[in-house]
Amino acid sequence: MPVLFANPAGLWALLGIPVILLIHFLQRESKRVPVSTLFLLDHLERESVKGRRFDRLRHSVPLWLQLFGVLILAWLLSEPRWTAGRSVQRVVLVIDNSASMEAFREELRTALDRELPKLTRFVGTTEFTVLESSVSGDSLYRGTSVVELLKSLESWQPAAGSHSPEQAIRVGRGIAGSEGTLVFVTDHTGEPLPFGALRLSVGTPIENVGFAGLRVDDEDGKKIWRATLRNYSDQPQSRSWFLGSGGRRTEARPVDLAPGAIHTLQGEFPEASDRISLLLTPDRFSRDDRLDLVKPQPKALLVSRTGAPQIEPVVASLIESLENTTQATVGGSPDFWFASYNPLAPADPPPVSIVFLNQEQVPRRFFPGPIVAANHPLMTDLDWQGLITRSTPSMPLAPGDTTLLWQGDRALILLREREGVRQLLFNFDVVTSNAPRLPAFIILVHRYAGALRAGKIAAETRNLELRQPLVLAHEKGEGAAPLQMVGENSSFTLPLERVRQLRAPGEPGFFRIDQGSTRLLDAAANFADTREADFSKAGSLSELGPLPEIIRERQTVTDPLRPLWILLLAILALVTWHFLGRKSKPEPATAS
Questions:
Q1: Is 60 exceeded by the pLDDT of residue 590?
Q2: C-alpha distances in angstroms, 26 versus 30, 52, 53, 578, 585?
Q3: CATH homologous superfamily, domain 301-453
Q4: How far, in Å, are 5, 61, 65, 495, 566 from residue 71 at the CA level?
Q5: pTM of the model
Q6: For the chain, which residues make up each domain, given as ranges?
Q7: Percent of the chain with pLDDT over 70
């Protein structure tokens, strides 16, 4: 079994060997003292005849006892421990992969290079596993080399938002086992960690200014962008920013921000340009120093109308309120219809449509009873209590219809969904009611149109957050092409069976998604987690101080002969003292 010294400094005790030899080399010369009587000579002992100088080494029992004692003392002070040559320990590092860790890459490498070798000193083999802290985090490294571990982190890109590392720490404890070491590496201090994990924090408060939000509005037919700048530090900051578009950029413009201040920049998209980039003077955390914007454009919807003249004003106002929605041309293929249903002249409405019940005569009576809304996504948070409707004959209900709103026993709003059919039915006279003046009515129509828009396979333009989940309508079934994402720095192909895993890129920039020759999305991805841009609570902390001692106690055993060595050292001291305490016989002296 290999021998390890828990206290190598104890080997300095071996310097006692040359000291003892030096002492035994030195001799002291006896002095001549004239006396008048001889009785005083009994108290003089002859020590040397040549004086204080290096003399030959005199072999003696005390000399060898002292040398042997020094060896035993050095052995005890160095605290030897034995470990099995095949001993193995597991060390699992759960590394916080939130975006703020990007600012402390060098500190992370320095801390790991300092702390990890200490954990391998007392064992034959150390198996390292490095995990990301997000729930879906990847395994960054598995192996036994600290050098390879640090090398694997060179290409690591932390990009996640704020999240709880508890699930990853739980997985790490399962890998490390009850006897293994589990370390959570982050950039901030906090509460004690679960599952016996130790914290290694490498952060420090830094000053940061960055983009904290964006908005694009339509004003007088023009696209106006607004970008929010925020100073996260407690000190005034000065930065410069400029706008880039089409390979050109404006001159840098200065901006001063007070501590914690928020400042809004705004401007108009340049002519003949549908994308711009706002760039800020870079600081230590560069992820929020760039803001890419595209002119947002939802999928185009084509609508047709087959309603009665009485409902045309309501339909016209609804079409005008729907973004990027136009009237289908004659012979075109609309995405949905605005239709009406007359109980006195019934006819089947179009398969995909919003249907309003309408009759020529104004009913006199009103529907009685309380108004109750169903628990359905289309009806979430909508207030219908102010709705006033007049009593009319009902549309014929079909099996499988979902009632969204009741008043007493009357189903006022229904959703009909089956193969090839998707209809939103208003089973009351909208024209004679106050529904067009209720926000709930307008929002419900917009939600229904939005659901139809989301299911349409067509191009759209959006501004997104980094790693935002994406749900895109696409071709399915055999023969359908996979999705292809093309970004500024990378591109990849995503098989259809993995479309649910589709996310925006983790790095800021423009990108697009295609399916074969069909464009599905043009977009820009930007950093948007202001919690990760605030470094006021970043800090440095290491709970690994006592860990090497714990590993030493766990992985090695002490010298089983230690009590015997201590006893032997005591015996050597007593024997040496006995020999040195004896008086040598005095030599005969002559009177002068």
A1: no
A2: 13, 6, 6, 21, 21
A3: Class I glutamine amidotransferase (GATase) domain (3.40.50.880)
A4: 15, 16, 10, 71, 12
A5: 0.72
A6: 3-81+560-581, 88-205+537-555, 301-453, 460-526
A7: 88
